[in-house]
Design a protein that fits this description.
It contains 6 helices and no strands. The protein is an all-alpha fold. Among the domains are: about 60 residues, no CATH class; about 35 residues.
């Protein structure tokens, strides 16, 4: 037969695993084990589990951490050893290297490390550390060194004096007394006016 002539189709024989199973669900005659109660518990346990973030996925792709702290992960240990060997070979000529990384390999490793662990400046710090206080200036805290303090005190004193004068004038007006003469007229001094002709 040539390669252009069609071959007769083979008859599919069911394998031992699929023989007697209904492909649309469970095996014929078996009981439905999923009830409303079991379905609710399954959904609750699913939603109570912590959600996997993109950072977790990239850390898993890099494979540097052990996913289960109780068990050792051989793949993670091998990845760590491979990375240390790669870093030891930096600076050697290509012929003496065991691993020859291309620019694309390095870019992919860098991307995975940034997405999994963050850039060095933006990585989360382990300890709580001191909280930042950006409002502290050269002279300390703003409420300890107020540039306008003296001017503010003078303005407040002038305002209090003016309120006292206004209150005294109101009292005199209510009693029917004449208003105070101006201070320069009370002394008997005359004010000079400039007249230009």
């Amino acid at each position: 037969m040539s390669s252009l002539t069609p071959r007769p189709a083979r008859k599919a024989t069911p394998s031992k695993k699929t023989a007697g199973l209904n492909r649309s669900g469970r095996a014929k005659g078996s009981k439905n084990l999923v009830t409303k109660a079991t379905l609710q518990t399954l959904l609750q346990t699913h939603f109570l589990q912590p959600k996997e973030t993109a950072q977790d996925i990239w850390r898993q792709i890099l494979g540097l951490e052990d996913p289960n702290p109780e068990k050792l992960d051989g793949k993670a240990i091998a990845n760590r050893q491979r990375l240390t060997e790669i870093y030891r070979e930096i600076g050697k000529p290509n012929k003496q290297r065991k691993y020859n990384l291309t620019d694309r390999d390095i870019a992919a490793l860098r991307l995975a490390a940034v997405l999994g662990y963050g850039t060095p400046n933006k990585m989360e710090k382990g300890g709580a550390g001191k909280p930042r206080m950006p409002y502290i200036g050269r002279h300390g805290l703003p409420w300890q060194y107020d540039v306008m303090f003296e001017q503010e005190q003078q303005a407040l004193e002038a305002q209090k004096d003016q309120e006292k004068l206004d209150a005294a004038a109101r009292e005199r007006q209510l009693k029917g007394e004449p208003e105070d003469p101006k201070p320069d007229e009370a002394d008997g001094e005359e004010t000079l006016e400039i007249v230009r002709g």
